[in-house]
Amino acid sequence: MSTTTERPGLRIVGEEEGSPYPKASLLLRGAARLVDVLIAWTLYQSTGPAGIVIALLYLLFADGMIQGQSPGKKLFGVKVVYLPNRQSARNRDSVLRNAPFGLIIILSMMPELGLKAFVAGILVIGGIEAVKCWRDRDGLRLGDLWAQTQVVDGKVVAGQPQTGSLAEPARAPARLKATAEKSSDTSPT
After folding, report:
1. How would you classify the pairing of strands 87-88 and 149-153?
2. Alpha-helical segments (H) within the chain
3. CB 97 within 8 A of CB 80
4. Distances from the Cα of 58 to the Cαs of 53, 116, 189, in angstroms?
């Protein structure tokens, strides 16, 4: 958040401006995460010995699957945005922002401590992430800070102007453009 003094143009050096997006609903984010965890659990249960690795990969890459949306986020209408260029999160961004949750899965792979380490990881890492997200004015958690991302409401983003927004410019196939141009050229003015 940038602080400006009485004279315009002066700012305290070192303070960053906040995100241009409002904080997304924590209820929607939590429900989306629950759906994604259920999908990961289903993958874990149904894929045999490789299940834990497949579930881990799903959780790491999920937010980069459908233009910044995991299946859970798509269902609940929230989206992950890479803040520097205000575009949908990519696979790299998804892996970075979900690394803390990936660590919880990796802890569960520890011999002899599997379940205990998993529960401790959920309590400690999950607790830190939840408190950070709840207290931050933009809803950023540690994973978001590492990846420079933010979860936003897809409806709010869609209503912003084209410049600097997530909305893709509408593109018509070349044939339709050519037909439209011909009809506008031949029509009387």
Report:
1. unpaired
2. 26-46, 51-61, 71-76, 91-97, 99-108, 114-121, 127-135, 142-147, 154-158, 174-186
3. yes
4. 9, 22, 57
Say what the pLDDT of residue 113 is.
Answer: 82
Give the type of residue at 130.
A
Rounded Cα gap, residues 19 and 136, in angstroms: 11
- Cα–Cα distance measured from residue 18 to residue 24, given in angstroms and rounded to the nearest whole number: 14
Q: What is the pLDDT of residues 45-96, one digit of tens each?
A: 999 889 999 999 999 999 998 888 999 999 999 999 998 888 889 999 999 9
- Bridge-partner residues for 11, per DSSP? 4
DSSP-assigned beta bridge partners for residue 81: 88, 150
Indicate if the pLDDT at residue 159 is higher than 90.
no
CB proximity list for 9: less than 8 A, separation 6 or greater: none
CA dist 125 to 32, 85, 107, 128, 137, Å? 18, 28, 11, 5, 20
Rg (CA), the chain: 21
